[in-house]
Amino acid sequence: MESKHGWPPDLTRQRVVVTGAASGMGAAIAEAFARVGARVALADLAEETVTAKVGALAAEGCDVLALAGDVADRGTVESWAQTIAERWGAATALVNCAGIWSDVPFADLALDEWQRVIDVNLTGTFHTCQLIGGQMRSGGGGSIVNFSSLSGVKGFKRRAAYTVTKHGVIGLTRVLAHEWGEDGVRVNAVGPGRFDTALAADKYADPAVARKFLERVPAGRIAPADEMVGTIFFLASEMSSYVTGHVLFVDGGFTAV
């Protein structure tokens, strides 16, 4: 039986939406998709930054689109979905990278911080999956990649709000993989370990904390943001056509020990 899955995968026909695309892994992923010929919508709350990135990519000849606004706002995501559909048709890949951090002892965690983290990390993923991913169901299928975390399966101190959302993302991923499989929509999650991003720098600002974490990483190093790109290309392409409902930890082996 002849396989249709050549290497490298053909990403030129992909219509990709990346949230959290202004910086870190989101930016690296969006830029990489654009530079291999995919059509890419870069979505982020940081309007000036994401608009500048789109301008620079367009100058390179990439077919890109800036989507500014808060992923936690339903109306904003509705407008994103409409804009994408009008320009390219339904997305074929959705990468939910947008997220915020919380580092507070549970006894001191304020309700407004708890709610904001849930609104962005979990409800934002709900919005994009339902509105943008939902269009895939009638548009021929596609692939959704949700960002969880090591905190999606661990219970680190001071991370109650963040941890709840990342556990929730894994649960949502599995439910959608079950519900939407017959529609040709695959839904997976990734769990990044320590990557060299602004968010991670804030998490590990204390050298003692950073050193203790790396002692538990078999690879013994921090990964650059673009080291996530290959994993996302795999999950978004036909190379992973029989992979759905899976959580792939990209963590240098942290979850193995």
Short description:
The chain starts with 14 loop residues before the first strand and ends in a 7-residue tail after the last strand. The chain has one domain (15-249): Rossmann fold.
The assigned structural class equals alpha/beta
Return the CATH class.
Alpha Beta
Would you identify the CATH H-level superfamily?
A: NAD(P)-binding Rossmann-like Domain
Give the biggest beta sheet.
7 strands, parallel
- Report how far the terminal alpha carbons are from each other: 39 Å
Query: Fraction of residues in helices?
Result: 40-55%
> How are helices and strands ordered from N to C?
EHEHEHEHEHEEHHEHE
Number of strands: 9
Note the total helix count. Answer: 8
Q: In total, how many domains does the architecture comprise?
A: 1
Global geometry: globular
Estimated share of beta-strand residues? 15-25%
CATH fold-level name: Rossmann fold
**Strand order across the biggest sheet?**
3-2-1-4-5-6-9
- Report low-confidence residues grouped into runs of 5 or more: none
What average pLDDT do the residues reach? 95
Cα-atom radius of gyration: 18 Å
